[in-house]
Write a structure and sequence with these properties.
With 165 residues, the chain is an alpha/beta fold. It has a domain at 9-114: P-loop containing nucleotide triphosphate hydrolases (Rossmann fold), CATH 3.40.50. It is 27% helix and 24% strand. The chain has a seven-stranded mixed sheet. Helix 1 packs across helix 2. The protein is globular, with a radius of gyration of 15 Å.
Length: 165
């Protein structure tokens, strides 16, 4: 696992944007973390990295899925209100995985048995009132390569952990 410390909401979405610019169709990103850990900020950054033009990306808490157009489609799924994994079929969950776009799933642990074997898992945790730790774990070669290239790029810039993107 590779982790980064973000010291502001803006930095959290910039890290997401940096990664999102590397994503392409068929990729799944699973977000884990407590309420207020920065999952929606991170998803917003991914959307920006995918060239989504909407100025306000919202968490689809009441609709489960928001769809946006960008360089590739961006599917933002929020499973916070999921009561039973059987509900996943009613939202067409399986159609978003390995699709024509990038799928980001907040509260991914609620669909644990339905997630693809290859994905990028992102663990967000609150360090203090302003800082978040963002842990990245890639399952599958293309996800591992993205993490490795990010690590090399950041090490090459010789920046402190707090001064990342």
């Amino acid at each position: 696992m590779f982790s980064i410390i973000s010291t502001s909401p803006e930095q959290t979405w910039r890290i997401g944007q940096h990664l999102g610019s590397r994503f392409d169709a068929g990729m799944t990103i699973c977000l884990y973390g407590d309420l207020g850990s920065g999952k929606t900020n991170f998803a917003y950054g991914i959307a920006r990295g995918l060239d989504v033009q909407e100025h306000y990306i919202t968490s689809p808490t009441f609709t489960f899925v928001n769809e946006y157009q960008g360089r590739v489609p961006f599917y933002h799924i929020d499973l916070y209100r999921l009561q039973d994994p059987a509900e996943l079929s009613s939202i067409g969950f399986e159609h978003y995985l390995d699709s024509d776009g990038v799928t980001v799933i907040e509260w991914a642990e609620r669909a644990a048995n339905e997630l693809p074997s290859e994905c990028l898992s992102v663990y967000l945790s609150q360090v203090d009132d302003h800082s978040r730790e963002i842990g990245l774990c890639g399952e599958g070669e293309r996800y591992e390569n993205i993490i490795q290239s990010l690590r090399i790029e950041l090490e090459g810039k010789n920046e402190s952990r707090a001064g990342l993107p």
